[in-house]
Write a structure and sequence with these properties.
This protein is α/β, with parallel strands linked by helices and about 240 residues long. The chain has one domain (about 20-35, about 50-240): Vaccinia Virus protein VP39 (Rossmann fold). It contains 7 helices and 7 strands. The chain has helices at about 20-35, 45-50, 65-75, 90-100, 160-170, 185-200, 220-225; strands at about 55-60, 80-85, 120, 140-145, 170-180, 200-205, 230-240. The chain has a 7-stranded mixed sheet with strand order 3-2-1-4-5-7-6, sandwiched between helices. It is globular and about 50 Å long. The protein binds S-adenosylmethionine. S-adenosylmethionine binds near residues 9, 63, 147 and 159. S-adenosylmethionine binds near residues 9 and 62.
Length: about 240
């Protein structure tokens, strides 16, 4: 019987072949933006973690193509963003967004001139980082269109589960918010059920069909809407008393 930690939550690590020009982003830019793990038992120091001293720190779990985190990082230059994504093509896409080469032909492996360095990328399972984050670090945590794992026998792989909720509870600031979006109604029902069973969070948005204020849709969301799927938005905060 595998331990829950050993289960693969994510699907593919690599999709179509990465062009040599994009490989430069992985070889040259990613090492500058990938955090070095502290020693066991130690935690990240946010004063030295980014190229800025962040007023707040936000986490995006499974950023896909990175459009969401790249857009937020521009909109909120004083916020530090940490994104985790094991799918390498997605990491390349975020790197291209950050250095401004996404729509251009050239791929210089540096950040766009004048861009604040407020993003750090973990090209792997977000759970690797959990022990290195201090309690209450994040004002916002985004879990957008998580893999639904629709088969009942794969239910343990769904990211919203009792073990991960315990981590998210510890990591969210007392007045922080956990944003979950999905266009799979069964996943939304599952998430609500898991959160209710856990008893640590409360859902704070009333209309789950209405995007929260200042919402930036992800690529997955846009594709789903084009295909006729209906997004569901769940916003949770920590319960004051459990
Ligand atoms: C359906 S995609 C959605 C991508 C993106 N959030 C969007 O809305 O466009 C789900 C993503 O979550 C990532 N993922 C799954 N488990 C993860 C984990 N434990 N840590 C980090 N990312 C994970 C997958 O690799 C995949 O790219």
């Amino acid at each position: 019987m595998p331990q829950l930690r050993d289960l693969r939550f994510f699907g593919r690590r690599k999709g179509k072949a990465i062009k040599p020009s994009k490989q430069r982003l992985i070889d040259e830019l990613l090492p500058k933006l990938k955090p070095v793990l502290p020693k066991e038992g130690e935690q990240f120091d946010m004063n030295t973690f980014f190229g800025i001293h962040p007023q707040e720190v936000w986490l995006e779990i499974g950023f896909g193509g990175g459009e969401h985190i790249a857009e937020l990082a521009k909109l909120y230059p004083t916020v530090g963003f940490i994104g985790a994504e094991p799918f390498l093509n997605g990491v390349v896409s975020l790197l291209a967004h950050l250095n401004g080469s996404h729509e251009k032909q050239t791929t210089h492996a540096h950040l766009e001139e004048g861009r604040t360095d407020n993003v750090r990328i973990w090209p792997d399972d977000v759970r690797d980082l959990f022990p290195f984050f201090k309690d209450g670090l994040f004002q916002r945590i985004f879990l957008l269109y998580p893999d639904p794992w629709p088969k009942a026998r794969h239910a343990e792989r769904r990211f919203i589960n009792a073990a991960n909720l315990k981590h998210l509870y510890r990591l969210l600031a007392p007045n922080g918010q956990l944003f979950v979006a999905t266009d799979v109604a069964d996943y939304a029902a599952w998430a609500i059920e898991q959160v209710a069973a856990d008893g640590c969070f409360e859902q704070i948005n009333e209309d789950i069909t209405c995007p929260p204020t200042d919402w930036v849709p992800t690529r997955y969301e846009k594709k789903g809407i084009e295909a006729g799927r209906k997004p569901i938005y769940l916003v949770f905060s920590k319960k004051r008393t459990k």
